[in-house]
Write a structure and sequence with these properties.
single chain; 4-stranded antiparallel β-sheet; 3-stranded antiparallel β-sheet; 21 helices; 69% helix; 9% strand
Length: 680
């Protein structure tokens, strides 16, 4: 009985192995079919010759060069022979010379060419030179140890009554070894490549570090905010953007009216900065133990707002000062004129993006102010007024969000004013998101974790179903809202999404009764992670193509493309490191009553500094290699040269660029490893 069972088990194992082998064979057969595996080109002799030529070119990089003198050794040729025969001009037989036998021949016929009195092993091309002076290479010739050579060639089919020539070209070195022009160009582009990667890495690090805390689950999980605060937060953003844009334009126009006087701009910048500092110094007292009165808090907010406006003016004036100074000192600095260009570019950067910075700063300030106002309303006011404010603010926030979605769709797809796509898109997306969230919550409530993998699959199916139901209802509501708002004419497509959003906002506030504290931290976490994943899914090469259209060909486009990709990549790596820190220090600092910001500074940051440095250095190494590919799309750097040489079949020159990339990457790897060993 045991023997039968063992035999049965052996048969089962054999059947399993045979089935696995069959599946693997079928999978590879399918993969070979889809990848067009064909060995016939490998057997082609012409392809082999081309491959050998490429490998030989790549194995001899054009790094060193020397001065050479070309010497032409010529014999006269007449093809076809004239009726009376032909005798070439007399030649000097004391030095190197060539001769042809016979002296004349029919076009395309075979002739013998000999060379005499050349240096041992001296070589060069043998060419046919017609009256047009076009060089037609016939063969590559090399003399023997005695300086003699002989070769049989076919004359080209170039009949002419005029005397033509055979020419043997030799080269003699006359100077010392030096770097070739290809090597010098490669060095310049390699420096450009490293600088491009450096700019992209630093940009990604500066932006990625604060975003990493926003996308760390362990920090965001406990963040919950009252519904009123969330609604006023979203309402404050567009208000702040509009106010900040107007403020930025005002600051810019004031700076333009002052003119190009650098000292005037510098003086105004310093004066405004000092005035702002004095206002803060005498208004906000650090040693005041007594709580501030409402009047004092109002005064402080007014002073802080004025200081922010003054800071924008100071930055704008200082940017104008840098622009003018950089423009004036570029030529006097001579070889160091790039420093003047750098100062000028910094000033131009400050003034160009001042309006954008003002809009973002004001939007953040308005959003924070709205959040604080929401906390005050939620904590201080009676239940009745709070319910009314929640309803109004919720409707306004979702209306603005829906209008923003509709406006984005209108701008992207250039829809006609009669199209209901804005309303349907806004309604569909909002209700799809709402349906997915509600269905996910119901799935977690209905299906227990004890079901394991089935629970995960069932919850996912319920969430997808909720998204589909929400999308359908949202589209129907969008069509209905657009039909109602169509009576307003061209502006109906603007009001339809907002009206639908207001209805959804009221419905959401009603549905959220009993859930005053919303998981705003997790909402920020999922939003930031989704954004990072979307950016990282786009190759930097594609980004470079877009930025080349925007800023033109060159390393600046490459730096922007790599910088954007680096922000998403480093933010993800940084946030995962934050999620893996020890919880003990965080709990200890939180027990002292520290704020969320203090908890991050004193408990999280000391644990993440070494890995942050390691990730940053590693990303720089990656960006150096990626910048090579960026150059193929016009993003500057050594990749641009490499692409040109490959397209022109200049494999010796391409080999120089490939060797330079390998050397620089290896050097950076060694340097970064040394830095990590000392710091990490």
């Amino acid at each position: 009985m045991a023997a039968d069972k063992e035999t049965q088990n052996s048969l089962v194992r054999l059947l399993a192995i045979a089935s696995s082998v069959a599946i693997i064979v079928v999978a590879y057969a399918f993969a070979f079919d889809r990848t067009d595996v064909d060995l016939e080109p490998i057997k082609d002799e012409q392809r082999r010759v081309q491959l050998i030529r490429i490998l030989r070119g790549l194995s001899r990089p054009d790094i060193l060069d020397f001065e050479e003198i070309e010497t032409f050794h010529v014999v006269e040729v007449l093809t076809p022979c004239p009726a009376g025969g032909f005798e070439p001009a007399a030649r000097d037989n004391n030095g190197p010379y060539i001769e042809m036998f016979p002296d004349c021949a029919l076009p395309g016929s075979e002739v013998t060419v000999r060379g005499h009195n050349f240096a041992p092993n001296q070589g060069g091309p043998l060419s046919f030179i017609p009256p047009s002076a076009v060089t037609l290479k016939l063969a590559e010739v090399r003399a023997d140890e005695d300086g003699e050579w002989e070769i049989t060639v076919d004359l080209p089919d170039r009949p002419d009554e005029v005397v033509q020539h055979l020419r043997f070209t030799t080269k003699a070195r006359t100077g010392d070894w030096a770097l070739s022009e290809t090597a010098r160009d490669t060095w310049e582009k390699m420096v450009e490549t490293v600088a491009l990667a450096f700019v992209a890495t630093t940009l990604g690090t500066i932006v990625g570090i604060p975003l990493s805390f926003l996308s760390a689950r362990n920090l965001m999980r406990s963040v919950r905010t009252p519904l009123v605060s969330v609604a006023l937060f979203f309402i404050g953003i567009p208000i702040g953007i509009l106010a900040g844009r107007q403020l930025g334009r005002w600051v810019t126009s004031v700076g333009e009216n002052i003119g190009s006087n650098a000292l005037a701009h510098l003086g105004l910048s310093i004066a405004v900065a000092i005035a702002a500092w004095l206002a803060l110094r005498f208004t906000v007292k650090e040693d005041d133990d007594e709580p501030a009165t409402p009047a004092e808090r109002t005064l402080r907010w007014a002073v802080v707002s004025a200081v922010v406006v003054g800071a924008l003016f100071s930055v704008g004036f200082f940017g104008r000062f840098l622009f003018e100074v950089g423009s004036d000192i570029r030529e006097p600095l001579g070889a160091f004129g790039f420093l003047g260009t750098f100062i000028r570019t910094l000033g131009d950067l400050l003034t160009t993006f001042l309006t954008f910075v003002a809009a973002v700063t004001t939007a953040v300030a308005a959003a924070v102010l709205g959040t604080k106002l929401g906390h005050f309303v939620n904590d201080k006011l009676p239940t009745g007024p709070v319910a009314v404010i929640r309803m109004i603010s919720g409707a306004g926030a979702i209306a603005l969000l829906a209008g923003g979605i509709g406006g984005a769709v209108q701008w992207m797809y250039e829809l006609q004013v009669s199209s209901n796509a804005r309303a349907t898109t806004a309604g569909g997306l909002l209700l799809a998101l709402t349906g997915g969230l509600l269905a996910g919550r119901l799935g977690r409530r209905w299906i227990s974790e004890s079901f394991g993998g089935f629970a995960t699959a069932a919850r996912f199916a319920i969430s997808v179903t909720g998204i589909g139901i929400g999308l359908t209802i949202g589209i129907l509501l969008g069509v209905s809202a657009d039909a109602v708002m169509g009576a307003f004419g061209a502006e109906g497509t603007l009001w339809a999404p907002a009206a639908l959003g207001a209805v959804l906002g009221v419905a959401g506030v009603v549905a959220a009764r009993g859930h005053d504290q919303l998981p705003s931290g997790m909402a920020a976490y999922y939003s930031s992670r989704t954004l990072f994943n979307g950016i990282r899914s786009i190759e930097p090469l594609v980004m470079a193509i877009v930025f080349v259209v925007w800023v033109g060909f060159g390393p600046f486009a490459g730096a922007l493309a790599l910088g954007l990709h680096t922000i998403a990549g480093l933010a993800k790596l940084y946030s995962e490191q934050v999620e893996s820190v020890m919880e003990g220090p965080i709990e200890a600092v939180a027990a002292t009553g520290a704020t969320k910001l203090q908890n991050i500074v004193f408990a999280v940051v000391p644990q993440i500094v070494p890995p942050y440095i390691a990730f940053t250095l590693y990303r720089w190494d990656i960006n150096v290699r990626m910048s090579t590919i960026i150059g193929f799309a016009g993003g500057g750097g050594v990749g641009f040269l490499l692409q040109q040489n490959i397209n022109l079949l200049q494999y010796r020159a391409a080999s120089v660029q490939m060797l330079a990339i390998a050397v620089v990457v290896a050097t950076l790897d060694f340097v970064s490893a040394s830095i990590r060993a000392k710091i990490v």
